## 1
Amino acid sequence: MAIIAPSLLSANFLKLQDACEMINTSDAEWLHLDVMDGRFVPNISFGLPIISAVRKATTKICDVHLMIEEPEKFTQAFKDAGADILTVHVEACNHLHRNIQQIKSLGMKAGVAINPHTPLESIQEIIVDADLICVMSVNPGFGGQQFIKSTLTKIERLKQMILAANASTLIEVDGGVTLDNAKAIINAGADVLVAGNTVFNAAVPSDAIKMLKNL
Ligand code: DX5
Ligand code: ZN
């Protein structure tokens, strides 16, 4: 059974409290929060004040995905806002190893996200240091995009790399996860499924979470 991390990006932003309460009583273990800066990705989402507010309304693990340049400037700020897991992009970090240590030294779990075009070799050396690798299965920036099919073999290869390193790093898959493809994603080696549209566009979002959970 995978960990389910609904992405708040697809929620109704006028009703974030309702979304948090739905997730609190659902089978989801994590809450995925997408921060975009309009530079690293061609979109701007939300930032620290929203995360602080959501933190107070949720009982779940806050999984913060930074799609921003120079994320190291904000590590402390996201800790203060309530992040439990802080994920930075390998493409946005010149000193990724240092960034991971910085995140962990503040008591958060450290994640590293990798874009669809970026080879897994770019994270080979930090696999044992990171708590989580977030494999992007769409180009980051927007919810509701289509899953890139070649991600499945990328997940399988990453799983082999983690096993070969004797590491316990989790594999999170982010983007285009649906009730139709989630089983194949889990079979490929995913431990955590992020789901935005599949959860929040469902007739009953908590039922969609339950279905993902019970695959
Ligand atoms: C994309 C974000 C995702 C997004 C996923 O840039 O990182 O977390 O919210 O949304 P869906 O599940 O709709 O593809
Ligand atoms: Zn995300």
Note: The longest strand covers residues 30-36.
## 2
Amino acid sequence: MSRNLFQGVEGELDLSESLRRMNATGFSPLDCTAPRHVLKGHGFSRANAGIYREAAALAAEEAPIAGSQFPQGLKPEKYHKAAASGTAKAVPFQNAVLSQCGEAASRRAHSTDKLREECGVVAIHGHPDAARQAYLGLYALQHRGQESAGIATADGLHLANIKGMGLVSEIFTDDILAKLPGQMAIGHTRYSTTGDSALLNAQPIRVDSVKGLIAIAHNGNLVNLGNVRSRLERDGAYFQTTSDSEIIVQLIAHSHAGSLVDAIADSLRQVEGAFSIVMMTRDRIFAARDPRGFRPLSMGRMKNPDGPDTIVFASETCAFDLLRAEYIRDVLPGELVMVTEDGVTSRQYATGVPQSSCIFEHVYFARPDSRIFGRWVQESRDQMGRQLARESAVPADVVVPVPDSGVTAALGYAEEARLPFRMGLIRNHYVGRTFIEPEQRVRDFGVRLKLNPVRNLLEDKRVILIDDSIIRGTTSRKIVRMVRGAGAKEVHLRISCPPTISPCFYGVDTPSKRELIAANNSIEEIRQFIEADSLAYLSLGGLLNCCQGEARTGYCTACYTGNYPTEWVDVEEILPATVGL
Ligand code: SF4
């Protein structure tokens, strides 16, 4: 689809028009390398400075941590200057802009005003068909990333690695899985936030070093990558990708530690940010979490009647269910686990750092049938709904979730408020990722493709709508309009977390502060914008209580408070809307 889109402007190359079409059309992540390829091949050099500037503006505005993405450590504003001159740094600038544009287009095309997790990881040790087990694990984790997927396997001697753009089931056919022999595997499914979205940055990433072949799959984002990367480059590291995950492997490769496990521990201590990683050499599997434990990672076991158990790791425990594995425990924050033929060993490579696990995993990302950070997600969401009902009750006839993510909280709300729960909005699960909207100007068409109101449940009713977040506010307004259009007398929107006021730097694709509606408007202003009769959010204290199990987890709440648990954040991203516009 996108290739046709760009071929349509071939010969009369006009990047503005290309960008406009990219943004106005369902641009597939499968094709996000297309603009770079097609435009480069058809005279991009003829584009004038104004077009460069527009591309840079779009790229800088859209890419969540653009400042750290541009090559040579330059900030976007320097590219604006380069663009204005029309010549300076033309080639790196052009490549960077196109890379960013591809990613931005991909993001826009998928924009349902929902935040996106970017990765799920899985690892298998000691199974005769490890690749297929990894495939099943990734299949269960597909909600954590749909842009690319990969599986690496090892048989004690060799390390094979296959990755591709698209869904797990599209990439890994029987024929492909047959090319991945071995009893060990790691797998990754990705929605990119760092590095461009091309196949090059798909994972697992494999690096051949003096320490042997190492493959890595990473969930999360590093925040000090610029510094570490330049230091490694000065030491002679050659990076294959722009992904932050490769930094960890390069650190291992350049470590002076005597053993591989020491080198890994040494490297993990040097990076800051969020990482739940699985790694594989020819004969070992490693799993580790960053010292703050931002992202989940659990360990499980498949019993083998004829031999040692298969050990599995996965971002979420829902993967264990499909594998028929039993949950053993979470990998601890700051823990490095190693699995060999001799069994499982572990060490704490970092201690004394307060835990700050991502609370938004409980609100939205993780599947409700997963247990993360020591607590069932379903239980947390049910409690969020109940607490929301206690905090912001309103006379109504029916409670309706925005499917799918609002369903569990809506059930809790309805029970607590003693109101009927009704599926007044039906989600179309079959909207293809490459669907071309036939008439973009039809108002709210994108949302109507995905959701449809059930008129007889909504007509003449006072409706409480339950959703898990408002990001820019545009989708919420469309949904409120849709429910009202189906005959609802009143529409009261309730959000099962506090207002999102600050972007995330730890592996969640949030827009910059300028674009977050709650960062720049009061709740009353948001209510007016989304055209609801009333609007209320769950309080921060309420949310924290709802996500506390026996484990007494420490949570990151930075997107609700602006208080970041790490020192490294991108200042550009946290400027309010009134600055620099
Ligand atoms: Fe999660 Fe928000 Fe913290 Fe990011 S900033 S890790 S989304 S709680």
Note: The radius of gyration is 24 Å.
